[in-house]
User: What shape does this take?
Amino acid sequence: MFDDDTIRGWYELFEQSGVEGLSHFDVGGSSSKMTPLQCGALKAWVGATLPRSTRHIGAWIAKEFGLVYESRSGLIALLHRLGLEYHKPEVISRKLDPKTQKAFIASYEDLLNSKGDDEVAIFVDAVHPTHAARPVGCWAPKEQKLAIEQTSGASASTSTARSI
Assistant: This one.
C-alpha cells in the first residue's frame, strides 16, 4: 500500500536524520501570520463592526497589517481560534404596548382639539427603509447574542405575503 515516492522520501529522511527522523512526525499546521496584538485588534474590530463576510475581514487584515490570507478556510480557522463565529441574528417579535398606544392617541386628540383656527395638522408619509428587515449572518464573538427587532407587528413572511 506504499508507492515508490513514499519509500524514497522515507529513505532520504533516514539518510539525513536516521531512525529519529523516521520516528518524529511533525505534521502540525503552520504558525499564525498574525501577532497576538494583531489578533486582539482583529477580534475587537469584528466585535464592533460585525462584518458579513470573510472577504470583508480579509480586506481589513490586508489594509491594517499588510497580511494576505490566500485561502478562505485558513481565515475561517483563524476566526474560530479567536473565538469568533458566523451568527444569524434572532428575530425579536415587535409587540406593541396597548397602554403606550392609548397614551399616544390621547395626546394626539389633545393636540388636534387644542390647535388654533389658523393652525392645521399636516400628515407626511413616513419612509421605512428597514420595513420587514430580514436578519442576515455576520461574524461576531461566540458569546455575543445578536437580535433584530421586527419593524412591524406582522412577521416577515406575512409582510411579504401582503406586499405581493
